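Fig. S4 source data, part A: sequence.
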Amino acid sequence: MIGAAHAFRIGSRKASIGKPTEYSGCRRRRSEHAQERRAPLKVSGFATEGHSSAEAFLSHANVSQIGCIVLDIHLGGMSGIELWHRLRAAGVNLSVIFITAVEDEALELEAVKAGCIAYLHKPFPADLLISAVTRALDA
């Protein structure tokens, strides 16, 4: 996830889905949150790749190998929605799932208009993320 985003490799899921867990822990460092979000996805057979920021994603990700991305709306530096707009402007057509801890109806509407598969409010149960990633990879 990029701090941001997790990228999910194309064809990287298996049919069975693990037991859902609840995400929590507001006092953890950002990297611990990302690892916590990736764990149930890995257990469910998804290959994930994490990036510390939108800028790191743009510098290091091979978008031809990615099936979908999970973007945190509020990142240091470039926002998740700004990254999504840049990817679209560059002709990259990846399915996106937005996550956020902030209640902002206008931002949610912008994300939905941008074509996101899901818009998840933290904390959220793992099964919602697993379901969204499955839909994104099937899209």
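Fig. S4 source data, part B ends here. The chain has a mean pLDDT of 75.
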